[in-house]
Amino acid sequence: MQTKSKVEHRAARDSTIDPDVARRFATTVASVAVYLDEIRHFRAKAMGISGPQFALLMAVMDLEQGDGVSVRHVAKAVLVDPSFITTQSKLLEKKGLLRRQVDAADARVVKLSLSDKAYKQIAGLAAEERALNSFVFEDTSSDSLERLVSQLADLQVRFEKASLKLASGL
């Protein structure tokens, strides 16, 4: 008895995906991304900063574990060039929302952390965020949302690999 190769097995599994469903998925996710971007801009405006600056602050808040997070890691998280993070972090530092500190172990690395002012302003948005989350996810359980986030994270990795494959001409 012969067993299917990995490629044959993958091809059989992949052929079950309806191209129309895949396109609808892509369109829906793109639409959700547009609305998330609009919401980010509204939240940023409340803090007197731009949407991308707000995304930078949120990435630092999510990634930072007490001793700051490198510019490179923040850039990777928000899918931008590190030079953009460097420029924007300097502006946010001037506004008193971010601290920039040279890494003691490697002077080439700049670590970012939120200032107390940033934490206070973000905390001021918490009630609005809770209300928004309640509205958006009213029919979704925490477990369902956690599963969805996990599935989307897995897909994010797959799409990143697919993008690299396309970029290399495959």
Automatic annotation (TrEMBL):
PROSITE patterns per record: HTH_MARR_2
A GO molecular-function annotation: DNA-binding transcription factor activity
Domain (HTH marR-type): residue spans on this chain: 18-157
Pfam name, any one: MarR_2
Protein name from the UniProt record: MarR family transcriptional regulator
Cross-referenced InterPro entries: HTH_MarR-typ (IPR000835), MarR/SlyA-like (IPR039422), WH-like_DNA-bd_sf (IPR036388), WH_DNA-bd_sf (IPR036390)
Highest taxon, organism lineage: Bacteria
GO BP annotations listed: response to stress
